[in-house]
Amino acid sequence: MKVIGLSLAAAVVWSSAVTAYAQQQEQAISAAETPPAIDTVSVTAKRFHMEPIEFTDYEYAYRISNGDVVNFSRRVLHFYVTIKGQPPVEIFPTAPDQFVTKGGAKLVFTENGDALNIDHYEAIQGASGLPVATVQETPK
């Protein structure tokens, strides 16, 4: 009986070892099938609302470095920039002192609105122009 008891004890140990190994393998397979956790990143569209009264700070004519004059205007709730008599191009506020066009031009006011930087000037002008134009306010 001692031999059978020893064999039975060995069988129990062996069975426990096999069960533990099977559980480890199951966990490893489960971990391999499950993609690693990724931190969630939320991206929201940047929106900025500007009231028409706030736009009055920018409704001036600005002479740019190539001699052209850029005029800012508004009609109801829409804001526009016009260069040397061309049709107005709608601009959209992205910050209190920044605007963009659908064509990709970026207009940034500096020095409390007295100066203006324009990236992709040609997108406003409709022809090849200065990639960056610096302008200063013209007297009214």
TrEMBL record:
<protein>
    <recommendedName>
        <fullName>Gel scht</fullName>
    </recommendedName>
</protein>
<keyword id="KW-0732">Signal</keyword>
<dbReference type="InterPro" id="IPR010916">
    <property type="entry name" value="TonB_box_CS"/>
</dbReference>
<feature type="signal peptide">
    <location>
        <begin position="1"/>
        <end position="22"/>
    </location>
</feature>
